[in-house]
């Protein structure tokens, strides 16, 4: 996945204060629906703190597409739903105001390029997984992606901290909670993953897990 270019530190400084002047501030508890994905919604959100989930929903399943963190910004008319994955502080403005602000602060546009690149990579990975990979392969991809983005060396291999529940992981890979739990336990039984604690796993040999895919 493309590297993250964050402007979170800029947004809390003098330059960010000027950029966000006139934006509307709102707080959302975990689970709050922020956008219904209506293409007629006219606005831009900026994440000041917390974490948002972009997803699609059908009659019997949800599919998580992307997660936004502090410093990320996105439009409200994407056609996807957006909810607060944890308590979040956001800023909102309309498209015309946002366009004017970007022209006055062109360096902040780099954040948009980063977000769009990461979102596109996430969407393409989701499509690839659903089309060509079974549940265990999708789980392997999920852990490998986290190892590359936030893994750290440990005596047991590469340690990965997953901040999501099994149900949320299932939503990220387009599966059911039960099937996801079974697949994770199967990878643990095969020695490809080691559960070290709540939400903490180790990948003893990442090349072996990659070969499994």
UniProtKB/TrEMBL annotation:
Task: Tell me the PROSITE patterns matching this sequence.
Answer: HTH_CRP_2 (PS51063)
**Annotated SUPFAM superfamilies:** cAMP-binding domain-like (SSF51206), Winged helix' DNA-binding domain (SSF46785)
Q: Which Pfam families match?
A: HTH_Crp_2
Q: Which GO terms describe its molecular function?
A: DNA binding
Which InterPro entries does the entry mention?
A: cNMP-bd_dom, cNMP-bd_dom_sf, HTH_CRP, RmlC-like_jellyroll, WH-like_DNA-bd_sf, WH_DNA-bd_sf
Domain of life the protein comes from: Bacteria
All copies of domain HTH crp-type, residue ranges? 133-207
> Which GO BP annotation is one of this protein's?
regulation of DNA-templated transcription
Protein name, please? Answer: Crp/Fnr family transcriptional regulator
């Amino acid at each position: 996945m493309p590297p993250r270019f964050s402007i979170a530190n800029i947004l809390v400084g003098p330059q960010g204060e000027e950029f966000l002047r006139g934006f509307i501030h709102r707080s959302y508890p975990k689970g709050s629906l922020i956008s219904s994905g209506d293409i007629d919604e006219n606005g831009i959100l900026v994440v000041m703190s917390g974490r948002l989930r972009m997803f699609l929903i059908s009659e019997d399943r949800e599919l998580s597409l992307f997660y936004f963190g502090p410093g990320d910004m996105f439009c409200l008319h994407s056609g996807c739903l957006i909810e607060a994955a944890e308590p979040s502080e956001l800023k909102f403005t309309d498209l015309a105001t946002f366009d004017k602000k970007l022209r006055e602060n062109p360096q902040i546009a780099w954040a948009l390029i980063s977000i769009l690149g990461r979102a596109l990579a996430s969407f393409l990975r989701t499509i690839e997984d659903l089309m060509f990979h079974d549940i265990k392969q999708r789980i392997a991809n999920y852990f490998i992606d986290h190892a590359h983005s936030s893994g750290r060396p440990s005596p047991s291999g590469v340690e990965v901290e997953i901040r999501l529940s099994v149900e949320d992981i299932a939503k990220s890979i387009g599966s059911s909670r039960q099937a996801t739990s079974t697949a994770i336990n199967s990878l643990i039984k095969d020695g490809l993953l080691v559960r070290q604690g709540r939400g903490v796993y180790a990948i003893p040999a990442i090349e072996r897990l990659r070969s499994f895919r």
